[in-house]
Every structure is written in C-alpha cells, then in structure tokens.
Amino acid sequence: MSAPRKSVPSKIPSRKINVLFSAPGPVYDEFQPAISAALSAEGLDAQVAADLPPAEVDYLVFTPNELITDFSVFPRARLALSLWAGVERVLHNPTLTLPLARMVDPGQREGMVEFVTAHVLRHHIGMDRHILSSSGWDQVAPKLARHRRVTVLGLGELGGACAAALAALNFDVHGWSRRPRTQAGVTCHAGPEGLEQALSGAEIVVSLLPNTPETEAVLNARTFALMAPGAVVINPGRGALIEDAALIAALDGGQLSHATLDTFRIEPLPEDHPFRAHPKITVSPHVASLVR
Amino acid sequence: MSAPRKSVPSKIPSRKINVLFSAPGPVYDEFQPAISAALSAEGLDAQVAADLPPAEVDYLVFTPNELITDFSVFPRARLALSLWAGVERVLHNPTLTLPLARMVDPGQREGMVEFVTAHVLRHHIGMDRHILSSSGWDQVAPKLARHRRVTVLGLGELGGACAAALAALNFDVHGWSRRPRTQAGVTCHAGPEGLEQALSGAEIVVSLLPNTPETEAVLNARTFALMAPGAVVINPGRGALIEDAALIAALDGGQLSHATLDTFRIEPLPEDHPFRAHPKITVSPHVASLVR
Predict the structure, then answer these.
(1) DSSP 8-state symbol, B227
(2) Of A140, A285, A290, which has the smallest distance from its Cβ to B137's Cβ?
(3) Which CATH superfamily is domain A17-102 in?
(4) Phi/psi class of residue A217: alpha, beta or left (left: φ > 0; alpha: ψ in -120 to 50)?
(5) Per residue in A149-183, pLDDT tens?
(6) Which residue of A has its CA nearest to B132?
(7) Are the C-beta atoms of residues B122 and B176 closer than 8 Å to each other?
(8) Rounded to whole angstroms, how far apart are CA atoms B44 and B41?
C-alpha cells in the first residue's frame, strides 16, 4: 500500500542507521524493542529511538498524530512508515516529499474483521433486546443471514476483508468502491451512481472508506433515505464519513434504528457530545482496529 | 439422522394418504400448506391435517411437545418425523416403536451458527461495555480471535457447524464429543478424560450436546473450575446440561464472568427464576435455532 513520492535509494548506509520512532508511549514501549531486535537480526547496525537529532534521521516510523507535522526537518530521511491505516493526516501534507509506506498488518485487519462481524451479527440477531432486558418470552426469531442485506462501503484492505467474512457467514453482501472492483461472494458497485445502488435497501451499512474530500459526509440525509427503513449504520472507518446532525435526525425519525460508531470527527469524543446520550447510538472509543 | 426402529414398508398405499401434522398453531399455519403442496407436486393423494382419527394416520409429522405422548394410538403409522433438533422428549418413549426421523434443515443449522458466532464475538470483543455505557474513552483493545480459546461441547450437526464457523473466524477452537471425531481447524477431544482437556483453559464455552442421562449437568462446579478464570458460558443446547445453582455460584465467585442462556430446565423460564435478575446472565427465549 505504499505511495512512492520519489525512488528509494538502493544502497543502505554503511554507518549506523538512525531510525526515528515517533509514537505515543505505550506503542513505543511495545514496538521499539521488537524493531531493534528485528533490524539487528538482519545484520543492520541501527538505533531506534524517539529523540534523534532531526538532521541525522535516516528512516521515520511514526503514528500520524501531533508529534510530527513538518517532514522537511528530516533532510536525510529516505522513507516514512506510518503505523496507521488512515491516511487523512499525511496524504495532503506538503512537507511530505519522501516515500511513504503505510503499515497494514494482519492484526489490524483481523481486529477490524472481528469488530465488524461482531456488530453486524449483534444487530442481525437483535441481541440488544436480551442484553438490556431479561424478562419475557417473546420468541421472535431473526431472519437468516442469507436474507439480510449488508453493504460495505470501501473494499480496500480492511473493507474487503470484512466483506469476505460477512459473505462467509452467508450475508447478502454488497460492496461499494470508488473504482470498480470484483470480489467473490460480494455484489460490487462503483462510482457515484453505484453508491445509490449499493445503499438502496441496505439493512446494515458498514463504512470503511478512507477519509478524503470525496468521502466527506458520504452518509447524509440523502443516502440514509436510500437504506431500508430501520437500517443500522456501523462506522469503524472515519468520523468525517458521517454528517453528524443528519445521523441524529435519521435515528430520531426512525429511518435508522441504530448507529454503532467507533470513529468521530473529534477524538476522544467529548463527554457532552449528543452521540453520547442518544439511546440509539453505541459509542466505542476507536478500538475496532489498533496497531497490536 | 434417522434412527430406524423397524424396516419401512416399501409400498405407498394406493388410497388417500393421511398425514397427521401435530404442531403449535404458528408452525402448523406456516408448514401445512407447503407440505400439502409438496406431496401433491409428487403426485401423491394426501391430506395433511391436525385432527385425523388416530387409527387412520399413515404418517406423523410432529413437534415433541405435549400434543403427542402415546404413539401406540397410531397402529397404522409407518414413520414419525420430528421437527425438533432435540431428542430428549422422544428417544426414551417406550410407545415409539415406529421409525423415527429427525428434521435438521439448513435454516436450523444456519440460525444456530449465527446465534453462536454472534454471542461468541460479543463476549470476545467485550461489546457489552459499550452497549451499556457510552461514556469514557478507555481504549482497551481485545486480543485477537487467534489468541482466544473457544470450546464447543458437541460436534454434531449443529455443534460441528458452529465450530467450523468459529474456526473460519480465526478462533482457537477446541471441540468435544462422546465418540472420537476429527474436524478441520478444530482440536478435537473425546470421552470423559477428553472433556477435561477440552475445558481446561477454555475462555468461551458453547454447549450444544444432546440432552441424555450422560450429559445431565455436564457443566457443574467441577467443570467450571477447569475453565480459564472469568470464562463465559453460552448455552443454546439444552437447559439440563447446566447445574443451575453451580452456575450462579461460579458467576458470583468470579470463576465465570458471564453466561448467555437460550435454553432452560423449565421453559418458558419463570419470571421469578434467579437467572432473570442476575446481572451476569443474559436470557434469550429459546430462539437460537427455530424451525423456519
């Protein structure tokens, strides 16, 4: 998933290699020893540290938070490796002229698949009813997954894996991507007119699109209205994919029955944000897919 | 899955065939027209009804509830087809001397797989925390499914399908059956000593054993103690597989962290049953797998 900006020099320096590892404490503590050991095992003389002089940095490994905003201070750097699946904090940074690689490890993909299949199945079988109340004996059986239409927006590394897992669970899976794709077991749609087809009649919608100017507020009053009445939206992608006020209006009006949100326009989600108190919204703290 | 008691006569009577369909109203209303139409499409002159004179019944289609307890009143019957996956109400009935078939349709199997995978994933990712509270921003990521040990007790038609679905979701799946079995992706155990191995260290246990004298209260204080501390029990099998008082003690003592129960020793579960009010028990009204 790399997006090369210029060609990578072929020779590794013969002197000690300086790898700047810029990440929050817990991530640093977990990964730094492993990266050092792996480089050493490859016979490379490298130091991996958080506090190297910028002018001496050869490689950057970073999480795209506030720690690094200006890449021009690393004149010698040959490659930047982002530990995040999301690209919105780096793609449009004009100071980033060196090659960029994005880490998408099996753990991130597996975590996302487990989060998405868990919440799709939760809404599919209607388990909240039983979690929230243990009285009564109302034997309403959910319909089977093969009769449940689930639409996954975004068929990249993460969305494609989720669509595959849902198809394996027998769901009637539709997928949408900007450019045409094909995937076994998934009815694929593409482009602006394909979005309408993908969402029409969808009962559960999972949004896993990248956050770009084109996907800003792709879930809005118009697209909510395309979905089946009482549809559920699950957003482990990016907060900016949803128009917040339109979501609340669709839930209040009954067009949507629930939203399970793992990502938000502001994170951490403020305690007084209306999503927090809404009875039809489940808030999870951006845990669907973590680097681990 | 038939258990023949005597050989089936080879000739179908040339007169009108009488099929007694004994089932609760909603099941009757759904299936009766379909069965009539299917027999007619096969060129058979049959009537399918709930109120035939017992002496004139040729075939029985029934749910093993209280409606039919004495099969000796049907001297002419050639076959009994049970619509339930469970066998406890019929296997030991001494009046049942005619051949017995048990219906296990794809819908029952799919419904069970969807219920079980939904609840295993629910406990795996810890979603109750977010369903029950929308405050805070505690980014505790669950471990990945490949590090989560799930044990399925019973590897028959339903248990085997659930074990396969859980293995496809990457869980570390162990299975137990009375007689030795093998299943791809599942570490299989068998027999009394195998039960101990299957449960040792299990973090989520799904019980899908048939209800027989050998499986009565197989989940008890001794077997709960084998599981990982804080284990979760999911019982869509039969209520009698669990020793009720031991379950409550294990939850109260912390050996188990939760139980999700779909079957009970008495159904419907009485409103004053201690399971109803227990904060660590989810009660669902026997909906995991319905004839549909």
Answers:
(1) S
(2) A285
(3) NAD(P)-binding Rossmann-like Domain (3.40.50.720)
(4) left
(5) 999 999 999 999 999 999 999 999 999 999 999 99
(6) A132
(7) no
(8) 7
Within chain A, all domains assigned CATH 3.40.50.720 are found at: 17-102, 106-283
Single-letter code of the amino acid located at A15:
R
| Pairs across A and B, CB distance < 8 A | 131
**CA angle, A35 then A37 then A43, to 5°:** 110
Pick the CATH number of B106-283 from 3.40.50.450, 3.40.50.800, 3.40.50.720, 3.30.260.10: 3.40.50.720
- Mutation target among B84, B112, B127 for the A interface, most CBs of A within 10 A: B127
Count of C-beta atoms within a 10 Å radius of residue B185: 14
**Straight-line distance from the first to the last Cα atom of chain A, in angstroms, rounded to the nearest whole number:** 19
Cβ A2 vs Cβ A101: under 8 Å: yes
Bridge partners of residue A46, in order along the sequence:
A17
**Cβ pair B208, B236 in contact under 8 A:** yes
Of the residues B130, B172, B273, the best mutation for testing chain A's interface (the one with the most A CB atoms within 10 Å of its CB) is B130
ipTM, two decimals? 0.82
Cβ–Cβ gap B127/A130 under 8 Å: no
Our CA-based measurement puts residue B191 at a distance from the nearest CA of chain A, in whole angstroms, of 31
Among A122, A189, A238, A258, the one annotated catalytic: A238
Say whether B144 and A119 touch across the interface (CB within 8 A).
no
Per the listing, tokens 């690393």 go with: A74
Q: Is the peptide bond before A24 cis (omega within 30 degrees of 0)?
A: no
Residue with tokens 């669970």: A169
Mean pLDDT of B145-161: 96
User: pLDDT (tens digit, 9 = 90+) per residue, A222-258?
Assistant: 999 999 999 999 999 999 999 999 999 999 999 999 9
Q: CA of B110: which chain A residue's CA is closest?
A: A144
Q: Are strands A59-62 and A46-49 parallel, antiparallel or unpaired?
A: unpaired
Q: Which residue of B has its CA nearest to A131?
A: B282
Shortest CA distance to B215 belongs to which of B235, B200, B232? B235
Catalytic residue check, A238: yes
Provide the H-helix boundaries in B1-134: 25-41, 106-125, 128-132
* Distance between CA atoms of residues B255 and B228, nearest Å: 8
Q: What angle do CA A182, A188, A191 make, to 5 degrees?
A: 105
- Asked whether the beta carbons of residue B114 and residue A145 sit closer than 8 angstroms, the reply is yes
Q: Chain B residue closest to A120 (CA)?
A: B118
Chain B hits for A204, CB-CB cut-off 8 Å, are none
